[in-house]
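To assess whether ligand presence alters the predicted conformation, the chain was also submitted together with pyridoxal-5'-phosphate. Input:
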Amino acid sequence: MRRTGTDRRVPLGCWPTPVEPAPRLARALGLGADDLWIKRDDLTGLGGGGNKVRKLEWTCGQALAEGATVLVTTGAAQSNHARLTAAAGARLGVDVVLVLAGTPQSEATGNLALDGLLGATVVWAGDIPGPELVSKASELAEQVRRRGGVPALIPFGGSSVSGARGYAECGRELRTQLPELRTVVTAVGSGGTMAGLVAELGAERVLGVDCGAVRDPARTVSRFAAGVSGQPCPPEDLRLRRDQVGDGYSRLTGPVMDALLLAARTEGLLLDPVYTGRALAGLAAAVRDGGIVAGERTVLLHSGGLPGLFGHPAALKQAEAALHGERS
Ligand SMILES: *Cc1c(COP(=O)(O)O)cnc(C)c1O
């Protein structure tokens, strides 16, 4: 039986994810002890957890409805989305092909090592820009089809109107868990996470911190948010900070390393150097410039990504320096 068309969801995670207060981190940032809460979307359950699980419930649901036997997706070598697509494929009993930017790595660390454990096939696409990575994925999907399989292309970062629906659901959880929520802060990569939150909570209650993964994050987020909510979402209405990108996607910055150390040492909370560290660095900057104020309830979305720390040589070097007391 082949069903097509409408959006479907396949269960992959553990819901709702918890929220917990972060009083020591709040105080260190200059907020009141009860002002800052963490939404633990690092605890989504599947494959080490992280925000991609919510989006995969929708994109994989659609793929299965279309009879898919192979999931094909794209990403960087340390892509959390690639790792979680591999985990979703294992859970759902379908093969996974990961088309990764770059060349074969001499050492498989972090997410890449987990891709191997999870049984995904990795195809290295070379050092090519995003659009070419997508063409390469389409080519591989075509090869699957010629061999009699049914491929489904899962979009970059799992972000599409369909994938973003998973984050509208997260917004609904937050409404129930913290009704007085003023601002939820999230890292922005491929945009679906912020888009779903905006669709549910409104643009004024979501602060996105760009990580430099896409060229025009505001347009990307607004397009997905409008698709989910059915309402226009002008890019200029979004609260989007672009001051934490630094030298570019996945490059470690001083404020991000400070954020990693601060979260770890005040709350025992482990962030990653690409996304959640930027989100906290952006939150800290927003407290400094008045975008976030004491006395209002702020939520930091912990979107996962810890495996990426173990595949990030610069961050590991800083952690080692801290171990030797050279960084505090
Ligand atoms: C992908 C990712 C994000 C960004 O989410 P998008 O929906 O791609 O914008 C944030 N945090 C982590 C840990 C991620 O892996």
